[in-house]
Design brief:
Ribosomal Protein L22, Chain A, alpha+beta, 32% helix, 214 residues, binds coenzyme A, 4-stranded mixed beta sheet
């Protein structure tokens, strides 16, 4: 039940230089992305994913092609594993596993948690959230948010409005989840279609590991 989670920092790399190594499909998508940080996230996400796949699956990874044409990115090819990608500010994270997964990471910054929770929670979940001491609400909010986003990503699209997404619904009963802290101030959630909670193997990358250090 292992999920390998790789993370890297866009500030450590010259991401535009890395773009030359992307597939033609990815370079075409990149043309439509203009925001500099979003471009860096997109490029580093692809490079990190390739690195993660080669590290975990060896030469077999070279036979798999990434298809992101229908929202959820998937690998196409014989015996290809499942993947999920997420970014938050400078942080880029990808997960690979032998079962379906969804990954989300968020920066835990202060926001109007009550208003946001009211938008994404059903009444019981909201009441539980509002009963928490103020200083526990930030983590509690990002746990709910990342979990819902990770479930959304596992399914590859809308299954229900956010307030109906959660692990208490019968549709999600087969899902297991785990939280992790990719770095201080960030929270991540991985949801897996598995019989027991996934075991995360974290691989925070050193700047030199991807070759092209800034
Ligand atoms: C698509 C969505 C899930 C992306 O999440 P995000 O937090 O904005 O961004 P992240 O960086 O975490 O994830 C982006 C990555 O998700 C992946 N992704 C995009 N669409 C996806 C989909 N339909 N299914 C699975 N993964 C998807 C992509 O790999 C993308 O990165 P890339 O474009 O560089 O390849 C989100 O914008 C969304 O639409 N959520 C709807 C659900 C909702 O209402 N959530 C509110 C809180 S419950």
């Amino acid at each position: 039940m292992d999920v390998s989670v790789f993370s890297a920092d866009i500030r450590d790399h010259d991401c535009e230089l890395m773009a030359a190594s992307l597939s033609a499909d990815c370079r075409l998508r990149l043309v439509g992305i203009t925001h500099p940080r979003r471009r860096a996230q997109f490029i580093l996400g692809r490079v990190l994913l390739r690195h993660a796949l080669r590290g975990r699956f060896g030469a077999a990874a070279d036979g798999w092609r990434l298809d992101a044409s229908r929202g959820k990115p998937r690998l196409v090819g014989v015996d290809a594993p499942e993947i999920s990608l997420s970014h938050a500010r400078h942080l880029v994270v990808c997960a690979t596993a032998r079962f379906d997964i969804g990954l989300d990471v968020e920066e835990c910054r202060t926001r109007d948690f009550v208003a946001l929770a009211a938008q994404i929670c059903p009444p019981l979940e909201l009441a539980r959230f509002l009963s928490l001491p103020i200083d526990e609400r930030c983590v509690a909010f990002y746990r709910m948010w990342t979990l819902k986003e990770a479930i959304y990503k596992l399914h590859g699209g809308v299954v229900a409005p956010p307030e109906q997404i959660g692990l208490s619904s019968p549709e999600e009963a087969a899902l297991r989840h785990v939280y992790f802290q990719p770095e201080a101030g960030f929270l991540g959630a991985v949801v897996a279609c598995s019989s027991c909670p996934p075991r995360l193997i974290l691989h925070p990358l050193m700047p030199t590991e991807l070759g092209l250090k800034r």
